[in-house]
């Protein structure tokens, strides 16, 4: 039986759940396809302010890919390239490219493909007992380069090589110290803290959140900004939300942003 990707929405905040509980939410091929499709649908919505990604239950965010299917999905080089490039890497890219802020709520195991998913999110909030790593050196295969982008951007080459070469499982505090996490909270507070973070994001101007994500990713490529890009950085001046933000500030009231 294959796992599932489910999405629910409440008040402008969507929750995407990785669900394969019999296998600690390991991600099978169908789930990678569904994850990509779900993120594309989420990205196209103007009414959403934030997305929370989590695993079903509290035992795991996701314990990597579904190793049981590797004998078939990676039987040949062409099969492996299709699986890792067409299915996995494109799903990860869809998370990284999502214009809507993303928050990973991490409980339990966050390993391999699960770590890759979390690494593509904007914020990562984990419980004290969460565990992190990619011990694939013990399985005799390497991480596909197309899946490394999020983690490499997040922690840099030194920490990523430590994770991959040693194959250790890190506790939440060490993961926080290495830059894998945004914050660590008590296990029973993970979902509440993720919702609180999502609500703080949702309280801001949605166009501003999207622009902040856009500019951070743009600056990471190292190219200098063009004159057109510098001017585009002030597109907020023509928005209703900019006027609303200033009006609310001077009137000493909470702003009511419309996303326009």
- CATH topology value of the largest domain: 2-enoyl-CoA Hydratase, Chain A, domain 1
Proportion of beta-strand residues: 15-25%
Query: H/E order of the elements?
Result: EEHEEHHEEHEEHEHEHHHH
Structural category = alpha/beta
Strand order within the widest beta sheet:
1-2-3-5-7-10
Shape descriptor reads globular
SSE blueprint and pairings:
Blueprint: E1 4-10, E2 13-19, H1 29-43, E3 50-55, E4 60-63, H2 70-73, H3 77-97, E5 102-106, E6 109-111, H4 113-119, E7 123-127, E8 131-133, H5 149-166, E9 170-171, H6 172-177, E10 183-185, H7 190-202, H8 206-219, H9 227-232, H10 240-251
Parallel strand pairs: 2-3, 3-5, 4-6, 5-7, 6-8, 7-10
Antiparallel strand pairs: 1-2, 8-9
Report what the structure shows.
With about 260 residues, this protein is of the alpha/beta class. It has two domains: about 5-200, 2-enoyl-CoA Hydratase, Chain A, domain 1; about 205-250, no CATH class. About 45% of the residues lie in helices and about 15% in strands. The protein contains ten helices and ten strands. The protein has helices at about 30-45, 70-75, 75-95, 115-120, 150-165, 170-175, 190-200, 205-220, 225-230, 240-250, and strands at about 5-10, 15-20, 50-55, 60-65, 100-105, 110, 125, 130-135, 170, 185. The strands form two sheets. It has a six-stranded mixed beta sheet, sandwiched between helices. Strands 4-6-8-9 form a four-stranded mixed beta sheet. Helix 1 packs parallel to helix 3. The termini are far apart. The mean pLDDT is about 95.
């Amino acid at each position: 039986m294959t796992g599932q990707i489910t999405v629910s929405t409440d008040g402008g905040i969507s929750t995407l759940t990785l669900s394969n509980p019999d296998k600690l939410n390991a991600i099978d091929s169908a789930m990678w396809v569904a994850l990509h499709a779900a993120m594309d649908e989420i990205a196209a919505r103007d009414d959403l302010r934030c997305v929370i990604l989590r695993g079903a239950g509290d035992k795991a965010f996701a314990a990597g890919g579904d190793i049981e299917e590797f004998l078939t999905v990676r039987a040949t080089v062409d099969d492996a390239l299709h699986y890792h490039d067409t299915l996995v890497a494109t799903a990860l890219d869809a998370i990284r490219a999502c214009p809507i802020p993303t928050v990973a709520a991490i409980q339990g195991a966050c390993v391999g493909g699960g770590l890759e998913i979390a690494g593509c999110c904007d914020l990562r909030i984990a419980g004290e007992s969460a565990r992190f790593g990619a011990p694939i050196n013990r399985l005799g295969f390497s991480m596909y380069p197309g899946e490394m982008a999020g983690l490499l951007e997040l922690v840099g080459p030194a920490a990523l090589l430590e994770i991959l070469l040693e194959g250790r499982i890190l506790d939440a505090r060490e993961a926080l110290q290495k830059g894998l996490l945004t914050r660590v909270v008590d296990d029973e507070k993970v979902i509440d803290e993720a919702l609180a973070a999502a609500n703080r994001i949702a309280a801001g101007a949605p166009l501003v959140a999207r622009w902040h994500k856009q500019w951070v990713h743009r600056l990471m490529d190292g190219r200098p900004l063009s004159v057109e890009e510098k001017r585009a950085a002030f597109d907020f001046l023509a928005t209703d939300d900019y006027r609303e933000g200033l009006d609310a500030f001077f009137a000493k009231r909470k702003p009511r942003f419309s996303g326009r």
